[in-house]
């Protein structure tokens, strides 16, 4: 197999995870005016490919903050040319994998955390430790754990962008009040009770949309498993330390989802509708809640009918009896990273690239992202929360309430992710059992561990 051919085997589902003076470190005068591409005319040119789009400014916190950083950089350093390509998520996944396989990546590009090992092994991305060490204030400003999925054996290959949770419950407090709950149910027995009462009114407890095969793992399975097992189980899986997918905690997490589906508390077309349809069911009052990430807060604020928007509150899954995980935790952390082409040598161009990355992800970008409803990887410090709608503020506070647990699809090998993403659809449709999913996942895991 060719050195880079393995890159084409990456799961495109990971791409769905794919959102004047400043405090940023300025490049040296040499960097701003030095030679760019080989044979260039003395102007640095940086090629940038990502999935942030101008059409999403004001709608998506990530797009708003990152692209603001690009524009600030252009203004402050007009002698550095930015050749930018903005792509849709799925288009980005296809093009990035093709370019990586051809060894033709741009200077700066996005790498989902689940791609990072493959990109490191194939020498596509540049190790950034030395460059970050020159900028300790910026380097040390990222939230705990957000650099992890972009780091291999202590070497940093990616700069995180956002770190918001993939698991939050957005629920209509009015619908829950109608069945006797003044907040989201605090136990799983209460969740099932609420499901029964809502069903009697012709309303689904949750709307659910896993057409893309990835939603379940990202927003449900990662958080539910941690409620049962705590982070130690996940750490053991990742290290090959003896934990197994057939362990009771993982099976019980899948069983909660199976029970909700078998009881009829989710929409019947759960495996054939996407996230947009899932949320529209909530807006239409066909469900009392939906589970999604922090990015959905601004969708509610901007697009929900007024009555639904004003009734929406935010919660997380309840804890479980004898559970080892933090009942306030959400699956989260940085999902995508900016990386630099491995062929970029130290010097003026790399200096300028690092400054661009700081503009896009550092302090000013983080503050703006937080102020418009996002959860940046870089700690924004104090910011004006009065600018946030109560739904966005509640989502931010729930995100910050506890340390995030790992998002499985960003950490597990793509072969394992693909098996779970496929098998969970069978579980939710009733054609597979949680135990059968666990066995299939364990087989994929053992095959992965056996690789040289």
Automatic annotation (TrEMBL):
Signal peptide annotation: 1-25
Pfam families in the record: SBP_bac_1
Gene source species: Paenibacillus methanolicus
Keywords: Signal
Name of the protein: Raffinose/stachyose/melibiose transport system substrate-binding protein
UniProt keyword Disulfide bond present: no
